[in-house]
Design goal:
It catalyses: chorismate = isochorismate. Belongs to the isochorismate synthase family. One of its GO terms (biological process) is salicylic acid biosynthetic process. This protein is an alpha+beta fold. Helices cover 30% and strands 32% of the residues. The chain contains 10 helices and 21 strands. Helix 1 packs across helix 4 and helix 2 runs antiparallel to helix 7. The longest helix is centred in the middle third of the chain and has 18 residues.
């Protein structure tokens, strides 16, 4: 059998009951997996690491953000899968034995959006965290998320969704995990940890501003972001925490200050951090050390996690959790499950969060989270075309 085309793989993804797609931000690494050889539910970092070492090829999945349970899901509470067959697009390599030949796709029109429900009281709830931080200087930052439910007339065409991800979010990581009637989709800009033969890469990503209507406005906004005290403080919390959690297991290298990362809807402050690992550390060992960073949780972490449980109305599940690929030798890449949505039957749940500080404007933060939902909303809107 000749190696399948990307279109064939996307069509196969749509009609498969179990499938996974993973692509790095530069698209130099891309995997499609189908079927289930083995799977893990709700396991911790050590359990998944030990299980992955027993396999012949990479496993894929994610960890729930915290211990709160999504009651009507098996996927969102932590799930990893060893696909029955796995295609490596970059190396044109197949793992496993293919038993489901690629046939002609069945054209399926995508669904329309029938309704949308937002958490309109989110700013009022977030204000309680702002008031707390203004009264207690030891409470420095908390990342608070909200969810949007979008009702659809039918199931998504996932072949179309994968193609739209490639065109609409070309510079993001892509992660799509399907199990039965559940699908988790992320077009995240943020890597948690990459490990390859003792070398590691991570990054601090925090601080956000919109894109400009033209190049001049875009550059002005980027300069504004680089000079904004609130965003610089938020970013510094993230970088300082990453360095403190990794300095005893690695030699670190990082620039003097943040750079700008541009995505289609927003631009972020970004500090790449690379280095050499000391000893036999794996990608999951680093992910466990780093999660949750202040970019997803807050500072101090125990207080921030308690505020998240108190203020957010629904469990996060895989949103903001570590997701990605783990190889048998412990190398791999874990990313952060943001710019994401969870699909179950005819409902899409979209997620977005914002870093809240003592001087945050809660209405501005609400608008920022709406902007961060745009990538997933655009995917849904394209289905009806």
């Amino acid at each position: 059998m000749s190696f399948p085309t990307e279109k064939q793989l996307r069509d196969r993804f749509d009609r498969s009951e179990h499938a996974v797609y993973f692509a790095t931000a530069d698209k130099r690494t891309r995997y499609y997996g189908f079927g289930v050889r083995e799977e893990k539910f709700g396991a911790d970092f050590q359990d998944v690491a030990a299980w992955a070492r027993e396999q012949r090829y990479p496993v894929f999945g994610g960890f729930s953000f915290d211990e709160q349970s999504v009651t009507d899901s098996t996927l969102m509470n932590g799930y990893f899968v060893l696909p029955e067959v796995l295609y490596d697009i970059t190396d044109q390599h197949l793992w496993g034995r293919e038993t489901d030949p690629f046939g002609a796709p069945t054209p399926i029109a995508g669904p329309a959006i029938t309704s949308q429900t937002d958490e309109r009281d989110w700013p009022d709830r977030v204000q309680t965290a702002v008031d707390d931080m203004q009264q207690n200087s030891n409470h420095q930052k908390v990342v608070l998320g909200r969810q949007r439910q979008v009702r659809l007339t039918g199931k998504l065409n996932l072949a179309t969704l994968l193609a739209d991800l490639a065109t609409q979010q070309p510079n993001s990581y892509h992660f799509v995990l399907k199990r039965g009637d559940e699908v988790f989709v992320s077009a995240t800009p943020e890597r948690l940890a990459k490990v390859n033969r003792g070398q590691f890469e991570t990054a601090g990503v925090a601080g956000t501003i919109r894109r400009g209507a033209d190049e001049a406005e875009d550059a002005r906004l980027a300069t504004e972001l680089l000079q904004d005290p609130k965003n610089l403080q938020e970013h510094a919390y993230v970088v300082e925490t990453i360095v403190s959690r990794l300095q005893d297991v690695a030699t670190l290298t990082l620039p003097d200050g943040p750079q700008i990362m541009k995505n289609p809807q927003v631009q972020h402050l970004y500090t790449p951090i690379v280095g050499q690992l000391n000893g036999d550390n794996t990608v999951l060992a680093l992910a466990e050390r780093l999660h949750p960073t202040p970019a997803l949780g807050g500072k101090p972490v125990d207080w921030a996690m308690a505020m998240i449980r108190t203020i957010e109305q629904h469990p996060r599940g895989l949103f903001a959790g570590p997701i990605g690929v783990v190889k048998p030798d412990g190398d791999g890449e874990m990313i952060v499950g943001i710019r994401s949505m969870w699909l179950k039957q005819q409902t899409a749940t979209l997620f977005a969060g914002a870093g809240i500080l003592a001087d945050s404007d809660v209405q501005a933060e609400f608008e920022e989270t709406g902007l961060k939902m745009t990538p997933m909303m655009n995917l849904l809107k394209e289905q009806d075309k």
